[in-house]
Amino acid sequence: MLEDDETAKIAIKHAMKALRRRHLIEEGAHAPAFIALSRPLASQGSEWKEKAENLERELQQCYKAQARLSEQLVVEVAEARSSKTLLQERDFSIKVLQNEVTLAREECSRLKESLEEKIKALDLMINENGSLKERLEEATVRARNAEAENKILIDRWMLQKMQDAERLNEANAMYEDMMDRLKTSSIEQLAWQQVDGVVRQSEADENIVGSTIPSLCKHKVHAHEGGCGSIIFQYSSGMLISGGQDQTIKMWDTTTGTLSGNLYGCLGSVLDLAVTHDSKSVIAASSSNNLFVWDMGSGRVRHTLTGHTNKVCAVDASKLSSRYVVSAAYDRTIKVWDLQKGYCSNTIISHSNCNALCFSSDGQTICSGHVDGNLRLWDIQTGKLLSEVAAHSNAVTSICPSLSGVIVLTSGRDNLHNLFDMRTLEVCSTFKADGNRVASNWSRSCISSDDNYVAAGSTDGSVYVWSRSRADVVGTLKGHTSPVLSCSWSGLGRPVASAEKNGTICIWI
């Protein structure tokens, strides 16, 4: 009990102390009021009035400040809302980008794994390619050796076949000779057969007319699509025959410049043309390895001569008979064809490809111009080489015999045009010009019917005309827009025709 009383006393003391402190605080707080109450009421009234006015002004300022703060609060609330919306959108964008980054990382890891696999595969392929390359080189060496051996075997086989063909041709010739003798009823008939060539040659010499220097383009026609590389005049006629890349043969009236007819059936580009002596047949050398023979009267294909193994680039018909035709191809062979029987009667093998050829005036010799620049004479019966001369320093592109048969004009890639005496194979004249450039390996030049003029085309689109007597250029014909590939002089002395690479033909008078 004593302890409880003591505790109560201590608590009462603390409570009394707290009441005293509170009383002192309240006295300090109410001190201004006591002082003010102790003052006179009149003086306190003026002070209160002034304080009231000040407080009213402060209250008004507070109201104004509160209005501004309210407006600012509204603006800031709107901005806060928009910022919150923007923040939400950006949070969403961040989540989307995080997802995309996650996917990109996963894709990157997959691509990295795929790249490593492909690198390993590439290394493996490189190793395999190296081994395959070594095997290819070995196979290439073996193939080259086999090709060389095959070429040797083919040459031997071709030579054997040619020998067999020669023996067969000799047997056929003997058989035909015996049959002709059996059918011959009199010595007079034999005599007429022997002098037939001489009579025809004398008739040709009598029909030779003088030529004039061309200077004017009378007609200009677009003859063939893709180009025209071969033109030829019909014997003793003004009709021009042309062949081109469009696989057609066309006949032109040079007097009017109009198309007279078409010959169809060629299966390749026409590289050269020939007309038989009787002007009844046209022969075309084709890039399809064949020759095509048309009948001029009906316009139908009479023969398709097969036997060459490469493109046929040159053809000519005998000047004495309409029976025999000779051709050359890029298989290094020259073939003699019998049009009455429609097959090859003789094959000649040359060491160099032949670009151009022609019959001699007696019909017993073939004159050929080759890629190696040589001019060669062959016996038509035996196929033996009779003579050979270096005609040009580069490939021979053209051979054009004169109507008299005494001389032959050759052109070459050395841009020279030579006249050879067929009896001695000696050069009679050489023609050249600074601007004259032979356009291709099959560019054809020509000589006039009286042997006095020479015409040749050039890469600049001009046709150059030389005088044989003056040995100089007497005319330069300008009318083409592309290289001139072929020239032909009518046996009537005029006109002259020229064909260019884009298929246009010009008729000059």
UniProtKB/TrEMBL annotation:
Pfam families (UniProt xref): ATG16, WD40
Keywords associated with the record: Coiled coil, Repeat, WD repeat
Ranges in a coiled coil: 45-185
Superkingdom in the source lineage: Eukaryota
Keyword match Coiled coil: yes
UniProt repeat feature WD, residue ranges: 221-262, 263-304, 305-347, 356-388, 448-476, 477-509
Record domain Autophagy-related protein: where: 45-169
Database matches in CDD domains: Atg16_CCD, WD40
GO biological process: autophagosome assembly
Repeat recorded as keyword: yes
Protein name as annotated: WD40 repeat
